[in-house]
């Protein structure tokens, strides 16, 4: 067996053959478009990996483990936002030059991003209308619809710190979006004032949430400046659907108490 090398460990020979422009002759910017979106999918995979750890940290009451991982996912969000700067170097006309080659392919079909929304607690029934059962990962998305979210595990964390979590939250319908709760807000506010170490975690969670909202906004503006009011690729609804999630936080309760701190 040959010795392990940088290239073989990362499977670079295979990785670097996965960029396959469809335009003929090849449009220059199509390579950028492919690489950016493949990179997004890799970061989405990493975020999902980290969220599973955060769930475990929360339910185990591991404050410092959660702090460490939220620092990481917050930083990843900054990278995702920065990548839009690169994509915006592509003009609307250069995108139009190969857009027709995408046929029915659309960013709306990113199963991993929908998984991220579901894992974080933002579960929209309308999302499933744009995901066909034959898409790879569809079954995983359906499974996540009925699983506890990062927010549900956050309730566990609050309980390990003496928080009284309402029974209706513990027994809630897991297929629904996590909603703000006044009792949870009281418990968070109590910890802000009595346990400074917890405030570090709460601020990191807020930072991440703000980063996710920033990414949504930048993504919407990118789509608007690229295709305007057109339908999305493959007939997807484009900007109107994206705007449904704009400025909707994941950690509602952390935002709801800002005026009381």
Q: Quick summary of this structure?
A:
The chain is 62% helix and 0% strand. It has 261 residues and is mainly alpha-helical.
Instruction: Give me the number of helical elements.
Output: 13
Count of individual domains: 1
* Extended strand count: 0
SSE-based structural type: mainly alpha
Radius of gyration: 20 Å
Q: What percent of residues are in strands?
A: under 5%
* Biggest beta sheet attributes: none
CATH class: Mainly Alpha
> Which whole number gives the mean pLDDT?
88
The gross shape turns out to be: globular
Q: Order of SSEs, N→C?
A: HHHHHHHHHHHHH
First CA to last CA: what distance?
Answer: 61 Å
Q: Please name the CATH topology.
A: Methane Monooxygenase Hydroxylase, Chain G, domain 1
Helical coverage, percent range: 55-70%
Q: Are there runs of 5+ residues with pLDDT below 50, and where? A: none
CATH second-level architecture: Up-down Bundle
Notable traits:
261 residues; mainly alpha; Methane Monooxygenase Hydroxylase, Chain G, domain 1; 13 helices
Describe the protein:
With 261 residues, the protein is mostly helical. It has a single domain (26-97, 149-260), classed as Methane Monooxygenase Hydroxylase, Chain G, domain 1. It is 62% helix and 0% strand. The protein contains 13 helices and no strands. Helix 3 (28-60) packs parallel to helix 8. It is globular, with a radius of gyration of 20 Å.
